[in-house]
Amino acid sequence: MSTIYDIAKRAGVSPATVSRALNNQKLVKEETRQRISKIAQEMNYSPNYLARSLVKKQSNTIALIISDITNPFFTTVARGVEDTASRKGFNTIFCNTDEDPEKENQYINLMLKRRVDGIIIASCSNGNTLEEAWSRNIPLVLVDRTIEGFSWDSVVGDSEEGGYLLTKHLIEVHHHKKIAAVSGPQIISTSRERLAGYMQALREHQLEINQNWIIVGEYKEDFGYRIASNYLRQADEKPTAIFAGNNFIAIGILRAAHELGIRIPEDLALVNFDDLDMVSYIFPFLTVAKQPAYTMGSVAADFLLQRISGEKIKEKRIVVLKPEIIIRKSCGCVL
After folding, report:
1. Which of 2, 10, 37, 271 sits at 20 to 30 Å (Cα–Cα) from 155?
2. b/e per residue, 180-217, with b = 16+ CB within 10 A?
3. pTM, whole model, 2 decimals?
4. Do 206 and 110 lie in a common domain?
């Protein structure tokens, strides 16, 4: 592999001149710069980015750690992060944790070893996995989810508002009084907040909060399917509507209802957080609280790059983005 010393020998200049020319620095004549660039191409020169990052103390690389890259919500968040980082000359490494704190911890340690300049994370832990990064003063931005007790910038959706508005719609428009909720693990802020919004709507309308109708577990399709399969087979009193904590849970509930011959929305109304591209191919179409996922990722990347650049920002910044309630047929509305 060619080095700057090989190029310098062939060009008849010093290695320092080659370095300045290839990095487009001043004090190098344009004619010399072009000649060195041509020689570098002919010699298939490839810069040693690791060595450069050690000298510059910056790798121009950030990490995005998310829970499930197959979820269209996180895919769109990732696109917002990558687009914004790329425009500013940064590369993005994507890490998928599958909602596993141990896997999250492994990725964080790996990213620290790779000397990334900063991390954007939708954490599935209580923050213990991030303590090493925090102790090293690595810039961090939380996306989608918050962690209590840590002073980091965060860009999230208003999960409580979305849960409240969806449940309120079921109560006020369709007059449901028996509404169940199926959501993710309580260690994750979005699950807690969405259930808080759901319960707020019930309290405001003086409806019973039946703890047997509040089920928490995983933000996964299989979880929604298993819960609904068991729940909807029971002979006891059943809810007439379900609020699903995310899109994958809702798809699992739809699968179970279809297998059991339960019609949505005629027999059971269904609403959920986060939209799905595939929703336009599913009947009935799902009524959802759609978050501005791309904006969420883009703003998070902006915040991180500002921290990396050394901008003097004393206070932590918290951006809460409002969801859009999209009414479709699964709630019972006739469109």
Report:
1. 271
2. bbbbbbebbbbbbbbbebbbbbbeeeebeeeeebbbbb
3. 0.81
4. no
